[in-house]
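Notebook entry, structure prediction.
Reason for the run: the old model in the group folder had no record of what sequence produced it. Starting over properly, with the input documented here first.
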Amino acid sequence: MWSTPRAIAYARQHALSRSHGKCAHFVTDALKHGGAQLQLTPFAKDMGRNLIAAGFTAVSGNPQPGDVAVIQPIPGHPYGHACIYDGREWISDFVQRTMYPGPGYRAVHPGYVIYRHN
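New structure, fully documented this time:
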């Protein structure tokens, strides 16, 4: 059974002090800890299909706790990015300043999809 609080707590407890390029792995682990039946995807940009198969739906509007952003690649970052929202901050393998994980993403504003568990 899905538990947003468990997924968020796991993400926050396992966040590193800075990015280690393992966002897909860390976000997948957090979602699995929350009860999602989710396959690990090698590249964050490709997580959408697995999220949908695990009971998530693409949504629009303001993010809610437990929402997952799948962000498309930018130059120098060909694998994209994924992060989970805890109600205040976005967390991947580290606690981010914004949904976009770094200055390159914040400058380019690549496309993204927000997924929410049903």
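Summary: The first helix runs from residue 4 to 14.
The old model has been moved to the deprecated folder.
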